[in-house]
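Recall that a protein's primary structure is simply its ordered list of amino acids. Everything else, from secondary elements to tertiary packing, is in principle encoded there. The following example makes that idea concrete.
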Amino acid sequence: GGFPMLWDFALGSWKLADSVHYITGKARLPKLKSLCLDSVTLESPEAIQEIFTTIADAYPALDALFIDAIIAQPDALLIAQAPEDLLFDSSEIDDCEPLRLEDLKPLASLRELTTLEIHHTLPLELTEEDIVELARSLPPTLTDLVLGNEPLCEVEHIITLSVLDSLAAALPRLRKLGVYVDARFDAMPEPPRKPHCFTQLEALFFGAS
């Protein structure tokens, strides 16, 4: 049905595609500004990229997007309610693929975005150059950015703390930042000669780094 005044919507489902099908099909949400979607099953990068494209096309005025695509851990309630073909299988984690820059590019179409949070089973497979390219493609008004800082499974780190200077230059208005980096002391980069500053940053999360 239609919800002409709804501006904030959160929906959990077994697959993100089911939620997106609902908000772009049966539901009509002309004033939607904040969207939170939660999935508990394996989502391929291609499927998530298509979902980002569909959301950006359907709701270009969105200013907050939260995506949680972390495979659910088994518990009695989950097992009791899940369809047989969606029951948790630990081998799914081995089949899980990380999100890459190409999968996130559709988000650049959301020109009013102020908040973007992406949580995934694996850390996002982004180099420092990828994160800088993504940051520059997003609106400069972005204030909250979380890029998979608390994955279910840890893998070898790709980026170091040097990414903070690059992000400060690209998104100086950030108030909240979450990234998965190599925060070990022996991986500490040399400070830049002319560092950029997060003049408004209030919360910084390294999560499982």
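The chain has a mean pLDDT of 86. The longest strand covers residues 8-13.
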